[in-house]
Amino acid sequence: MKIAVQKDYDAMSLCAARLTAEEINKHPELVLGLATGSTPLGMYRNWIRMVKDSSLSFAGVTTFNLDEYLGLPPNHPQSYRQFMNEQLFRYIDINPARTFVPNGISPDPLRHCKEYDLRIEKAGGIDIQILGIGRNGHIGFNEPGEDFGQLTHVVKLSESTRQANSRFFPSLDDVPTHAITMGLKSIMKARKVILLASGEDKSEAVFRAVFGDVTESHPASILQLHPNCIFVLDEAAASKIP
Ligand code: F6R
């Protein structure tokens, strides 16, 4: 595992944007795994700027998002599909038909999970997976205790995650209780993983991911076993790393 520590959020975002842009420029038909949440927004803004100044193109890129709330339709303001459209896809030259987000209102979510895995496989697998990290060490919606061996599946969200995400909903009761997420096995299958973390409140989760035991009680710790993983951190998120 490599660790790149940048001064602050903006520097972390630029570093991650450059790392990925370099790869996309080398392999224009790259398959990207994407995350939502606050952390990757700065990187997405840099990608948008690069597309505008023609130093980057997503014309040949395919994307698969990590997760989606179960029960939210794609056009719901808090769905992750809507988030991706609003924060990234509408501003870049990507083919919308090649952007995939799990369907939160599939009539058969278990079957949908299998189809999502198949679609990733058919696209040739994920070349670069972008991740954030939760304060409890979750990646995607893989909460502590989640089996390391899972592909895309349905999960029950922990109370701490629902509370953290309630800032985007009118009230805690409006936060869905379940989600569809790529599993830890899906994430480990990606050829390269880039995890972003910013802020002091992520420092303990980052420390345990890098130096703690590899244990299902801290999902991000599995990344210690990934052959090509880089943590791009700001100084605050790295502050517990000796
Ligand atoms: C979102 C996702 C989550 C977030 C994590 C951190 O698609 O997979 O695991 O990456 O909850 O969220 P932020 O970046 O908002 O702190």
TrEMBL record:
Its gene? Answer: nagB
Enzyme Commission numbers on file: 3.5.99.6
Q: In which pathway does it act?
A: Amino-sugar metabolism; N-acetylneuraminate degradation; D-fructose 6-phosphate from N-acetylneuraminate: step 5/5
Residues of the active site are D67, N136, H138, E143
Q: Which residues cross the membrane?
A: none
One MF term in GO for this entry?
Answer: glucosamine-6-phosphate deaminase activity
Q: Which GO terms describe its cellular component?
A: cytoplasm
Q: Which GO terms describe its biological process?
A: carbohydrate metabolic process; glucosamine catabolic process; N-acetylglucosamine catabolic process; N-acetylneuraminate catabolic process
Instruction: Report the catalytic activity.
Output: alpha-D-glucosamine 6-phosphate + H2O = beta-D-fructose 6-phosphate + NH4(+)
Role, per record: Catalyzes the reversible isomerization-deamination of glucosamine 6-phosphate (GlcN6P) to form fructose 6-phosphate (Fru6P) and ammonium ion.
This chain's source organism reads Effusibacillus lacus
Protein name, as recorded: Glucosamine-6-phosphate deaminase
Which family is this sequence assigned to? Belongs to the glucosamine/galactosamine-6-phosphate isomerase family. NagB subfamily.
Give UniProt keywords alphabetically: Carbohydrate metabolism, Hydrolase
Chain ranges of the Glucosamine/galactosamine-6-phosphate isomerase domain: 18-224
